[in-house]
Amino acid sequence: MSGLSRPRRLSWIASAFLAWGLHFFVVYSLQGLVCGRGWSPASAWWGMGALTVAAFATVAWIGLRARRVVAAAGDDAGRRFTARLVAMLCVLALVAMGFTVLPALLLHPCE
């Protein structure tokens, strides 16, 4: 069995999609604030770009950590499986973030 406790392992597995969910919430909240408060769309795009870069970096860091765990797992099949699962979920979360931010960046707000 893996060296991680079950709650910690579950948190690690969910971490990439937690980052995606937070990114989704903040990007579309910012989009709503731009429309509701009359903020400048250019500043919103810069903010969304910065948030997206930070979210991508966070998920990439989680994925790189998972790759290091796979390499160091040795004979622990449970730990190796969990790390590979986390790495695959990181790739999926990065794709989801791309689909989340694409409409917000390409379309004009409030139309």
Could you characterize the architecture of this molecule?
The protein has helices at residues 6-37, 41-72, 77-106. Helix content is 85%, strand content 0%. It is mostly helical and 111 residues long. The chain is built from 3 helices and no strands. The protein has one domain. Helix 1 runs antiparallel to helix 2 (41-72) and helix 1 (6-37) packs parallel to helix 3 (77-106).
How many separate structural domains?
1
- Averaged pLDDT: 87
Shape: elongated
- Judged by helices, strands and strand pairing, the structural class is mainly alpha
Number of strands: 0
Helix amount: over 70%
- The fraction of residues in strands falls at under 5%
Radius of gyration: 17 Å
Q: What is the number of helices?
A: 3
Attribute tags:
single chain, 111 residues, mainly alpha, transmembrane helix, membrane, transmembrane
Summarize the structure in short.
The protein has helices at 6-37, 41-72, 77-106.
Write the topology of this structure:
Blueprint: H1 6-37, H2 41-72, H3 77-106
Helix pairs in contact: 1-2, 1-3, 2-3
